[in-house]
Amino acid sequence: MILPPLSLYVHIPWCVQKCPYCDFNSHSQKGEIPETAYVQHLLDDLRQDLYFVQGRKLHSIFIGGGTPSLMSEQAIHDLLAGIEQAIPFTENIEITLEANPGTVEAGRFEGYVRAGVNRISIGVQSMQNDKLKALGRIHDANEAIKAAEQAHLAGLNSFNLDLMHGLPGQSLDDALNDLKTIIELKPKHISWYQLTIEPNTQFHSKPPTLPEDDILWDIQEQGQAMLAKAGYEQYEISGYSQPGYQCQHNLNYWRFGDYLGIGCGAHGKITLPEKECLIRTEKVKHPKGYMDLTKPYIYKRWQVEHSDLAFEFFMNRLRLFEACDKTAFHELTGLPLHQVEAAFEHAIKQGLLQHTAQQWQVTAKGHRYLNNLLELFV
Length: 378
Ligand SMILES: C[S@@+](CC[C@H](N)C(=O)[O-])C[C@H]1O[C@@H](n2cnc3c(N)ncnc32)[C@H](O)[C@@H]1O
Ligand SMILES: C[S@@+](CC[C@H](N)C(=O)[O-])C[C@H]1O[C@@H](n2cnc3c(N)ncnc32)[C@H](O)[C@@H]1O
Ligand code: SF4
Prior knowledge:
Distance between the termini: 22 Å
CATH superfamily of the largest domain: Aldolase class I
Low-confidence stretches: none
Bound molecules: S-adenosylmethionine, iron/sulfur cluster
Radius of gyration: 21 Å
Helix content: 25-40%
Structural class: alpha/beta
CATH class of the largest domain: Alpha Beta
CATH architecture of the largest domain: Alpha-Beta Barrel
Largest sheet: 9 strands, mixed
Shape: globular
Number of strands: 17
Number of domains: 2
């Protein structure tokens, strides 16, 4: 087994209010968030994970949530300084912070950049005010535009806009107009998600009327063509970027790289080559329990069973559009290649995969029927 690049995910669990479609680990917090105490807990949590790190450097950091843009510049500065003290950074480290346009007053992004952030991901969701209202968002389209302008002003070479489609009452034209407006804001990266109704959300208990399947299909096909025409390459199911601006954190995740996870409900995955195994970690989910000094941060830690490894590898790796080196399978899982050859032959016969002597690549059909492809590895 070889050691892949190491990333770090940091979870910030608070939002101004909970959106009715969202099943992320987020809690509405009226008033001040306990950011100073939380940063200390995060750094303490990280120290307890250092056992796994052993001389490695950090390749990317993703501060996600919840709404990390509720944190002050000082808190993000203290957090990043503390992380760097614990684990050195690689020279080109990517440091992303997620922001909600409703929390971004002027000058905020400059502050984050001073603290060390070099990529901001802004949750725009839609550019139509009636849709934003139906989604329970705390901002309007104008504030989303202002947030994107601020990202340019802060000198951020790379920022991402999150947009959703398949929204309640959305027509094909609505969705395409949203994309067109987003493209005009010139982000280097666009995450374009189809709205899904998740269990344990308000939309699940009171479902809104969503567009018919044929409209969803047209949105997908025509939206992808529009993004491609504007120079955005699709490199992952929902990830599009200008060439060279893929999200390094996501890429490492889908390439089956390693990541530590700190903060409420954060997940981690670490390779231990000397033990020929993978460890997964999960931290305590609720902020109250996580910040309770009498309890550990870790909720669960387990070794991935050998029988699950092949599926876990491909479930991540086959989401990416780039080809996969055949050697990566053995290097990252420790399993012999011949174990998956029969599944691959089957997938190639069905037109879901193609291959050369060195690499595998998912075909367009394989991306469309990804679940059928993955079933071959169960
Ligand atoms: C943690 S949020 C981003 C930052 C910030 N909390 C915000 O919403 O502005 C992650 C992103 O996941 C997407 N998302 C969340 N729930 C979703 C759902 N049910 N279906 C599709 N996309 C969803 C949204 O685009 C959202 O921006
Ligand atoms: C889906 S991406 C967001 C994409 C995005 N909008 C951007 O910046 O390009 C969010 C990243 O945070 C990671 N993440 C989210 N919740 C997590 C958790 N609880 N534990 C570990 N990683 C998490 C995901 O794995 C992913 O790499
Ligand atoms: S979508 Fe973003 S702002 Fe809305 S509840 Fe989820 S994490 Fe919070």
